[in-house]
Specification:
The chain has 211 residues and is mostly helical. The chain has ten helices and no strands.
């Protein structure tokens, strides 16, 4: 007869492992921001998280993988392994038939990701200047973001044409420029815009330029 206790223990272990992982990510975020990517060692991250440095190495391997985990946590805040395209907001946008309303929803969705990943992107911009692995991560992140934004344009095209003469690729590049981490950092971080103001500006700009 199979024990009914073992699954509970496995679940507890999984929960403890995830809690440890989140502590490490939080500690790394804090240290990367305060000491810089180069200045924060994995030993310091381990000390801040209250774990052995071997635990950090076994979970992440190196600082670049740890930075990638910080970034991913902002892009997809759930812990179930889903892709950004599988988030519930995407299904709502996909099934909305009015293009202007789609753009409003997309602007809110993009603002949420940019707001959650702002710290990670600030770390990444700085790290990429001197670390080749961080630079590769930055390039992968940019490609992923642009690929996702092409899908946003496809969702708009499913409900009608874009502005006359505007190609799918040009529309995607327009979206990528307006909804980039750098644009968000400049307007919200440097100019002091509230995130909601950025969202409204993004929606209005996309509507004017795409439709």
């Amino acid at each position: 007869m199979k024990s009914k206790v073992k699954p509970a223990r496995r679940t507890l272990r999984a929960e403890q492992a995830e809690a440890t992982r989140q502590r490490i990510i939080a500690a790394a975020t804090s240290l990367f921001l305060s000491k810089g990517f180069a200045g924060a060692t994995l030993q310091a991250v381990a000390d801040e998280a209250g774990v052995a440095v071997e635990t950090v190495y076994s979970r992440f391997g190196n600082k670049t993988n740890l930075l990638a985990a910080i970034l991913e946590k902002g892009i997809v805040p759930t812990e179930d392994g889903r892709d950004v395209s599988e988030m519930p907001e995407m299904e709502v946008i996909r099934t909305t038939r009015d293009q202007r309303r789609q753009i409003e929803l997309l602007a809110a969705f993009s603002r949420g990701i940019l707001q959650r990943t702002d710290a990670a992107h600030r770390i990444l911009r700085s790290a990429a200047e001197s670390d080749s692995h961080a630079l590769d991560l930055q390039k992968r992140d940019t490609r992923r973001r642009i690929d996702g934004q092409r899908l946003y344009i496809d969702m708009l095209l499913a409900n009608g044409p874009l502005r006359k003469g505007l190609t799918r690729e040009a529309a995607a590049l327009t979206y990528s420029t307006l909804a980039s981490p750098d644009t968000y950092a400049f307007l919200v971080g440097d100019q002091g815009w509230p995130p909601k103001r950025f969202q409204d500006w993004l929606a209005e700009s996309l509507t004017r330029l795409l439709l």
